[in-house]
Amino acid sequence: MSVTKEAVFKMGEAKKEWLDVAVSALDKAYVPYSRFPVGACLVTKEGKVYQGLNIENASYGLSNCAERTAFFKAVSEGERDFQHLVIAGHTPEPISPCGACRQVMVEFCEPTMPVTLLGDDGVMMETTIEQLLPYSFNNKDLPG
Predict the structure, then answer these.
(1) Exposed (0-12), middle (13-18) or buried (19+): which is 127, by Cβ within 10 Å?
(2) Which ranges form a coiled coil (predicted)?
(3) How many CB atoms lie within 10 A of CB 47?
C-alpha cells in the first residue's frame, strides 16, 4: 500500500508521518487466521505517536484490533488526551473500524476528534468519533 500524493496533500505534509505509521503496522500485524492486517496510528495532543496492529489468537474472541492495541498502549503509559487516529487496511474503500473499537474511541476521545480511514491505493476518508458512533453510550449514561 502506498500513500498517494493527493492523500498527503489533503492531510498536510506534517501529518504524513501518521499515515506512514499506520501503513507500516500492516506488515507487523499478527494475522495467521484471517490474513487481514490492520494498522493504526493514535496521536496525543502533545504529538506523541502510538502504533497499533491487530493481533489474532486461535481462540478468536481473544484477538485484539489495531485501534484498541494503540489505545491500550497509550493509556497504559498514562496518556488520556488524543488529537487524531489513522486506521489503515488492505480494503478497496477506506477501512471501517469495528463496533468494539468505536466504543473504545468514545471512551477516550472527544466526539469531534478526527479519524482518517485509509484503504488500498491511498483511498481515504475523513470522519469523526461522533460520526463513527452517533448516539453513543458513555460515562454520562451511568448513574451516580
Answers:
(1) middle
(2) none
(3) 11
